[in-house]
Amino acid sequence: MSTMTQTEDRTTREYNSNSGGVAQSEPQRGYLQPPVNVVETKDGYILEAEMPGVGKDGLEVLLENNELTIVGHRRSFEGGEPLYRESVDRDFRRTFVLDPAIDTAKITARVERGVLTLNLPKAEQVKPRKISVE
Amino acid sequence: MKLMRFQRPHVSNWSPLDQFESLRNEINRLFENPLAGVSENFNTWAPALDLYEDKDNLVATAELPGMKKEEIEISLHEGNLTIAGERKVEKQYGEKETQRSERFFGRFQRTIALPKTVDANGVKAAYKDGVLTVTLPKSPEAKPKQIAVSTN
Fold first, then answer.
1. How close does chain A come to B122, measured CA to CA in Å?
2. Domain count of chain A?
3. Model confidence over B27-81: pLDDT tens digits?
4. Is residue B63 classed exposed, middle or buried when 0-12, 13-18 and 19+ CB atoms within 10 A define those classes?
5. What is the ipTM of this complex?
6. DSSP letter assigned to residue A13
7. Residue B65 to residue B68: CA distance in whole angstroms
8. Which range is most confident: A12-26, A62-76, B21-35, B126-140?
9. How far is CA B107 from its chain centroid?
10. Could you tell me if residue A2 is inside a domain?
């Protein structure tokens, strides 16, 4: 099972700290929560979020203290009468609490084919270093 | 109106641990976003499909983030449009520890019965920002015709 270490959702944190309870409704109501993959490497974290229909112009990445919020505004198809719909006409939004080891000044974001990739590098001084023995 | 027929996609890399992981994700998602409901296909991928109609065309759109054009298969058979493909893991990132794994990789297939006849030769497909748009021109007999009323 995955260890809920440093990069975690606000909601996960709320749930974990709320012993035996159900997660409180969070401020992201009314938005779609994009599915994400998060991996930790020795250099930092990489977060991939699926936001189909969101291009570069529709994307916002907001950083406040150690909270990172991703927002994706999407354009739905125009120019036709809908006969059948499964897609949800809502924007994407999700907030993560960042590991303090992340150098927030060096975060980079890229969106390609509806997938946002965030590169969250760790600060140099916290990277594992190999110390050579004299 | 029963418009679609769902075919269960083939599930590739199955492992008991994956199942636990996706169960946990599913439960978390329910707590986090009760509106979303349980994904209709546990641990499989059924991309959202829409169908629109304008004067000349039926237009189907499918949410397929992170695919390559070449990995998407579109076919038309007896008035059924099928969109299938396989999403592969693109980046491995070397030595890593997975913290969250909510994205689905593997095969999917969706079929939708088209409510009007279309001209199979004129079908066009475009893929942009992870959304596939298939434009299917209606055949002449499926288009509304204006009939002039003659007066005498």
1. 18
2. 1
3. 776 666 555 545 444 557 899 999 999 999 999 999 999 999 999 999 999 999 9
4. buried
5. 0.75
6. H
7. 9
8. B126-140
9. 11
10. no
* Triad B101, B111, B56: Cα angle to 5°: 120
Convert B14-72 into a string of H (helix), E (strand) and C (coil): CCHHHHHHHHHHHHHHHHHCHHHCCCCCCCCCCCCEEEEECCCEEEEEEECCCCCHHHE
- Percentage, residues of chain A above pLDDT 90: 51
Are B95 and A53 in contact (CB < 8 Å)?
no
The label of the residue with tokens 């920002």 reads: B129
Please indicate if any CB of chain B lies within 8 Å of the CB of A105.
no
In the block, tokens 């949410």 appear at B63
Q: Is the pTM of this model over 0.90?
A: no
Number of domains making up chain B: 1
The domain of A72 spans: 8-16+28-77+86-124
Residue B72 carries which side chain, given as an amino acid letter? I
Q: Nearest Cα to A28, choosing from A96, A76, A112, A74? A: A96
CATH code of the domain covering residue B121:
2.60.40.790
Q: Please, are residues A111 and A55 in contact by the beta-carbon 8 Å criterion? A: yes
Pairwise CB contact (< 8 Å): A55 & B3: no
Crossing angle (nearest 10°) for helices B16-32 and A10-17: 90
